[in-house]
Amino acid sequence: MSAPEHVHEHVQEHVHEHVVKAMLREAGVPVPRGVVLPPDTRDFGAAGELAEPLVLKAFGPGLVHKSEAGAVTLGLRAAELPGAAARMRERVPGLAGFLVEEQAAAGVELIVGLVRDAAFGPVLLAGLGGVWTETLRDTALRLCPVSEPDARRMLASLRAAPLLAGSRGLPPVDLAALVKLLLAVGGPGGLWERLELGEFELNPVIATPDGVTAVDARHLPA
Ligand code: ADP
Ligand code: MG
User: Fold this and answer.
1) How far is the CA of 89 from the centre of ligand 2 (A)?
2) Nearest bound ligand to CA 69?
3) What is the distance between the alpha carbons of residues 106 and 104, in angstroms, rounded to a whole number?
4) Domain with 40 in it: what CATH number?
5) pLDDT, tens digit, for every residue of 118-148?
6) Does 107 sit in the ligand 1 pocket, CB within 6 Å?
7) Residue 130 CB–ligand 1 contact under 6 Å
8) Structurally, how many domains does the chain consist of?
9) Amino acid 144: pLDDT
10) For all residues of the chain together, what is the average pLDDT?
């Protein structure tokens, strides 16, 4: 599969989240349904087709760590979008537009990434994500392409594996969907084959008993 034109267009700078997500969707990675709106919009009608609760995110040059910049608001109803956007416009310099998307149900937050090792080439990374990424550094690495057994072994090797398998009354996550996501990224024919475009970080991928969703996607240009 060849890369869409718009990816090349943005490759020299920071690629906006919605552009990366469009590419992920195309590659079979589940991402939230969302709409993109201009920075000065007063009309959020396009978000009406999305299921609440909604998430409002800003994008723009230099907006890489969005939460820290105040560029993510969770748990909104559609009617709350104009007010939330007005506040975000005031606190986020260089806001180039908004992404409004459906909020995925809470689950286990994972990180899935593609990194390029100078000696070995493309490597798939999977581990515990979200706020625990830096603190616990619980990750597994495999050279691409990874096979399905490889992907399962990566997940099983995590210290967080019991969270995925279900423990202490928590239900197991949809492991088949998670393995499928890992293969879409790092398996045969996966996104890793397009690593000339740079590296990827999906953090978090939210895993629940009903499936997986990549709710944040970052592209790190080569
Ligand atoms: P950043 O990593 O740039 O600060 P994220 O897009 O990862 O911004 O959003 C911050 C946090 O908000 C995520 O780690 C996740 O917990 C939550 N989040 C973001 N988007 C969604 C979504 N669509 N559904 C559910 N939770 C989300
Ligand atoms: Mg994130």
Assistant:
1) 20
2) 1
3) 6
4) 3.30.1490.20
5) 898 999 999 999 887 888 889 999 999 999 9
6) no
7) yes
8) 2
9) 96
10) 91
Which among 67, 61, 59 has a CA at the least distance from the CA of 133?
67
Ligand 1 pocket member 32 (CB < 6 A): yes
Q: How many CA atoms lie within 13 A of 6 on its CB side?
A: 9
**Ligand 1 atom at minimum distance from 106 CA:** 25
Q: What is the mean pLDDT of residues 195-202?
A: 78
Q: Which residues pair with 56 in a beta bridge?
A: 73, 100
Q: In the predicted model, what is the mean pLDDT of residues 15-41?
A: 95
CA of 105, closest atom in ligand 1 = 25
214 pocket-lining for ligand 1 (C-beta < 6 Å)? no
Ligand 1 pocket, residue 65 CB under 6 Å: yes
Could you read off the pLDDT of 69-109 as tens digits, one per residue? Answer: 999 999 999 999 999 999 999 999 999 999 999 999 999 99
Percentage of the chain surpassing pLDDT 90? 78
86 with 131, same domain?
no
Asked if ipTM goes beyond 0.95, one says yes
Is 23 within a domain? no
94: left (phi over 0), alpha (psi -120 to 50) or beta: left
Tell me, what CATH number does 134's domain have?
A: 3.30.470.20
Same domain, 176 and 126: yes
Ligand 1 atom at shortest distance from the alpha carbon of 131: 14
Statement to judge: residues 123 and 62 lie in one domain: no
How do strand 139-143 and strand 121-128 relate by DSSP bridges? antiparallel
- Unique residue bearing structure tokens 């920071």: 14
